[in-house]
Write a structure and sequence with these properties.
Strands 3-12-5-6 form a four-stranded antiparallel beta sheet. It has two domains: about 110 residues; about 110 residues, no CATH class. By secondary structure, it is an alpha+beta fold. The termini are far apart. It is extended and about 70 Å long. Helix 1 packs across helix 2, helix 2 crosses helix 5 and helix 5 packs antiparallel against helix 7. It is built from eight helices and 13 strands.
Amino acid sequence: MAAESRQYITLESIINDYLNESEQSIHKYAKCWHIAYRGMEQLGITFFYAIRSVKLPVLGNQTVQLPNNCLRYTKVGVLNSAGEVVPLIYNNNLTFFADQMPDRQSKTIDNTFLALTFSNTPVFYNYWTNDAFTNIYGLPSGAPYQGSFNIDESAGVILLDEHFCFDYIILEYVASPNPEESCNIPMQFREAMVSWLWWKDGRAKNVNRGRVGIDRSLKSDFFNDRRLGNAEYRPFYLQQAYEWNLENQRLTIKA
């Protein structure tokens, strides 16, 4: 019986299922675990990836270190009085220059150009409110400007502009699985993972023996089981369809 917890199943129990089904000994467990872990990485990034939310301190040079298990970010911001994340604005013009140095700000800001720009050029506004133009900064009307950010993936840091005045950020990101911890996957993908093991564990043997057709059949089984697992993992709910229909009606009336 596979170990289940809140509709999740451990990777170890799936490997045991495969070993029993393929009539292999427990001595093959280490090899199959590494194959299954690769399958979990692929399925996890595509379907059931884990979103983690962390509160990170801002360093003195207006940067934040990314967690080591961060695959990609989903949200960068600060908290408001309702416990919601107020997203910062992504600014790809923030330079990566000197982002590892403690005096990054002094090396990346040209005060001469800043003074020249504001003294000799007009300021453009892009939002009309209360009989006057103002800057919306990409946020809802009336929301204060919190700052902007950029991410240097190779250095593993988040860059913040000079206007950011908080001592922390809230980062929501896609986390990679930890091989040193017990790995769990949604039970809807159990058959997909077993099919992955059948395909990858016997691939070299089948190809070397000229049984390319068997390898292709096992590959097809995996992608079909993956499709079925995703359909069960993300079912269609009538309540969601009802809310979606109401939202479309409101948009149509406004138009």
